[in-house]
Design brief:
It contains twelve helices and twelve strands. It has helices at about 1-50, 110, 120-130, 145-150, 155-160, 175-185, 195-205, 205-215, 240-255, 285-295, 305-315, 335-355; strands at about 50, 55, 65, 70-75, 80-85, 105, 135-140, 165-170, 260-265, 270, 280, 300-305.
């Protein structure tokens, strides 16, 4: 009886060991399958949606900058890829400290231009138009609305020392007074850069980055959430000129002290009505006030409304949106970048002809 019990016990132990071994093999196969699937998904995402990691900018010219000399790709809005330069920005040329820069270009992800080919973003087009006469350096960065550009204006000019102009892009002329006050008082909230070994590793896996974008930020097709201005009270309840004057006056003083001409370029979103006519939703009072305050402080204001709506009337081309997104929505496309650069080019040429008395 004891032998029988012992034998049954041994058989149970052997059966348990076999089951554990099979389970262990299954676990290893599942892990291997998961790893292979993750590698395959990341290989796909590397070509479809591969965004570099960003880090706090130590020189303060922007809130942050991207990894340097790093491949990126965007297939969620348009189809574009390229390599950040050695300074962590989207320029065709590497940056050499002290090099001649004639035009410093600042703005949001629209100007950053990750959604168009590198030679089609506004900075690159400006360099093509000037054909060596002037060099434009682009530090446009996602999330950097005009208010953030103003926050970093002094540091940006001190870092890059443009010889002639600073061009600041804005998608709105309507700002909440409390946000303007935050810039003036130095309390405008920082845009955080997530760091740390684990966080950085997670950001370096393109598929996980894409998954996060889809689930938490909404699939591309609209501009990055960081690039949209905060919800504001109706413009009719404000005195826009009174609120804007201290901010634009500060910007003018910063530029004057460094011998730089500021140019602010307004690139509004364009809509199409039921009759096929292009229009914008810009508040006329805010636009007039913004233009007036710019003139008061010697800031050149370039309004792209006519250029954008005129282009649609001429060829039915909108400055925003791509073949794989909603027409007219999201980031600036190659048409928008070309019109932006063309208007800035013509503005600067006109300014210099006026200075020369031509």
């Amino acid at each position: 009886l004891h032998r029988l019990i012992r034998r049954q016990r041994q058989m149970c132990i052997r059966d348990r060991e076999k089951r554990m071994k099979k389970f262990g093999v299954w676990i290893l196969k599942a892990i291997a399958g998961g790893v292979i699937a993750l590698l395959a998904l990341n290989a796909f995402a590397m070509l479809y949606y591969n965004v570099p990691v960003h880090y706090t900018n130590p020189d303060g010219a922007t809130e942050y900058k991207w990894e340097t000399s790093t491949f990126y790709s965007k297939g969620t809005e348009g189809f574009a890829w390229g390599v950040t330069n050695n300074d962590g920005f989207n320029n065709l040329r590497d940056y050499t400290p002290g090099e001649r820069i004639d035009i410093l270009l600042m703005g949001s992800s629209h100007i950053e231009g990750f959604n168009v080919a590198q030679d089609e973003n506004a900075g690159a087009v400006l360099n093509t138009l000037f054909d060596g006469e002037k060099y434009t350096y682009n530090i446009g960065t996602a999330g950097h609305t005009m208010l953030y550009c103003m926050k970093h204006l002094a540091a940006a000019l001190d870092t890059y020392e443009p010889g002639g102009y600073v061009v600041i892009e804005t998608n709105t002329v309507d700002f909440a007074p409390e946000d303007i006050d935050a810039v003036l008082s130095g309390t405008l909230a920082d845009i955080p850069s997530q760091s740390g070994a684990l966080v950085t590793l997670m950001q370096k896996l393109p598929y996980l980055r894409l998954l996060y974008t889809v689930q938490f930020k909404g699939m591309a097709g609209a501009a990055d959430a960081d690039d949209t201005e905060a919800a504001e009270a109706p413009a009719a309840l404000r005195e826009p000129a009174a609120a804007l004057s201290p901010l634009l006056g500060m910007a003018a003083d910063i530029c004057s002290a460094r011998g730089v001409q500021p140019i602010i370029v307004f690139d509004p979103t364009v809509y199409v009505d039921g009759q096929g006519n292009a229009y914008t939703k810009t508040d006329a009072g805010c636009l007039a006030a913004f233009e007036s305050v710019c003139a008061e402080h010697g800031i050149v204001f370039v309004d792209l409304t006519d250029a954008y709506t005129g282009k649609y009337a001429e060829s039915c081309q909108l400055p925003y949106g791509f073949a794989n997104t909603t027409p007219g929505a999201g980031h600036m496309n190659r048409v928008g970048h070309r019109l932006f650069a063309q208007e800035v080019y013509e503005t600067i040429k006109a300014l210099e002809e006026k200075q020369d008395g031509i």
